[in-house]
Design brief:
mainly alpha; Ribonucleotide Reductase, subunit A; two-stranded parallel ribbon; 14 helices; about 60% helix; globular; Ferritin-like_SF; AurF/CmlI; RNR-like; oxidoreductase activity
């Protein structure tokens, strides 16, 4: 084991060599230290409240899946076929001459890099969720919340495992963490207030991730990636529901000043997250665009606006449900064009029939996903 300390995350792609057997590979753990004034809490009343949190905890135990044996790692996507189909959100770069001028092989390579860049942000976000969940297990004040946070920590570890394995074995390289995602993770991990960790992770990051995972699951052509995302989505749906149900009661106990403080924090996290979903490194590499050109092109595309709205339609009703769309903060969301989603269905209400289903087979997932993708595409076309 070799531990190398850095002052920040890697800035370049990391490639993996599959030729060497594991025992001959040199493993280097590259770490970045962060400090947090975490305030922990014992709980000496071990009474188990029979409520939604307890039921979600029980479901987490019942529906555990093993990333090593429940996913079909024998599947290899055809090397001449794109990983992502683009049926829901047509990539805006496909209208560019620079993309049209690429050879078929270059277009496939671009697809691999763009998909890897997105999946790596999922991977980095899941590591952040792993760290935050472990903090919440220590500092959440109630017994049920500690138990659930501990179970979520294991879920997040499994998500890190499967995203990393897919990237290493099926794609072969890692992209560095998006600077905006890193800034948000730093903000959440280093704050001493446990409920802000809840808000930042369970509501903002997990809520956005849940929508992004669903989008990619519907749009990918890779059977293994579709199955992987489907299983992760099942876990994340419980996590977001846990956060909304727990915070809805907790926020009511705070003073108006404390609520405003949390509402401002959530707004700032949403602003950072709007840029988090802009990943342009692959575009710069293959389409010969400068960072600013790629960013502006992506921001101004109708497809990106549709995609961004799709993501935030999941977050805004949750913020409304827990009481963080205060009168003073609402105009700020109005300026971002996000307030229109506040009355969409929130994750407070739980579809127990859906989240208690046994794990589906890859065949069932593909069939269901294709049907859902067709329905979503029709809805977007009508809009």
């Amino acid at each position: 084991m070799e531990i190398v300390k850095r002052n920040g995350p890697p800035e370049d792609l990391i490639y993996f060599d599959d030729e060497l057997p594991l025992e001959e590979k040199h493993v280097e753990d590259v770490i970045e230290i962060f400090n947090t004034p975490l305030t922990g809490a014992y709980n000496w009343d071990y009474t188990v409240a029979e409520n939604r949190i307890k039921r979600l905890y029980e479901l987490g135990k019942e529906l555990n899946w093993n990333g090593s044996i429940d996913l079909d790692w024998s599947y290899n996507h055809p090397k001449d076929k794109p990983l992502v189909g683009g049926e829901l959100f047509e990539p805006p770069h496909e209208q560019l001459d620079a993309w049209k001028n690429l050879s078929d092989e270059e277009k496939i390579e671009f697809d691999r890099h763009e998909t890897a860049e997105l999946l790596c942000q999922f991977l980095h976000g899941e590591q952040g969720a792993l760290l935050v969940a472990s903090q919440i297990a220590s500092c959440a004040p109630t017994y049920n919340a500690k138990l659930y946070a501990a179970s979520q920590t294991f879920d997040e570890a499994r998500h890190v495992e499967v995203f990393n394995r897919y990237l290493q074995e099926k794609i072969g390289f890692h992209y560095p963490v998006n600077a905006n995602l890193k800034a948000l993770l730093d903000k959440i991990l280093t704050d001493e207030r446990w409920d802000l960790k809840f808000i930042g992770m369970q509501v903002i990051i997990e809520g956005l991730a849940l929508a992004a995972f669903t989008n990619l699951k519907l749009d990918t052509n890779c059977v293994l990636l579709k199955q992987l995302l489907h299983y992760v989505i099942r876990d994340e749906a419980r996590h977001v529901t846990f956060g909304i149900n727990y915070l809805e009661e907790y926020i009511k106990t705070l003073s108006p000043e404390e609520v405003e403080d949390r509402a401002q924090f959530a707004y700032e996290a949403c602003v950072i997250s709007r840029d988090r979903i802009i990943n342009t490194t692959a575009m710069q590499k293959f389409l010969k665009m400068s960072p600013e050109e790629a960013r502006q092109f992506t921001l101004e595309s109708g497809a990106m606006e549709t995609f961004r709205n799709f993501l935030f339609s999941r977050v805004m009703p949750n913020l409304s449900k827990i009481g963080l769309l205060t009168d003073s903060i609402r105009p700020k969301y109005e300026e971002l064009g996000l307030l229109e989603y506040e009355n969409a269905p929130s994750d407070f209400e739980i579809d127990w029939a859906e989240i208690t289903k046994p794990l589906e087979s890859s065949e069932q997932i593909v069939k269901e996903s294709n049907e859902q993708a067709k329905a979503v595409a029709e809805m977007l076309n009508q809009a």
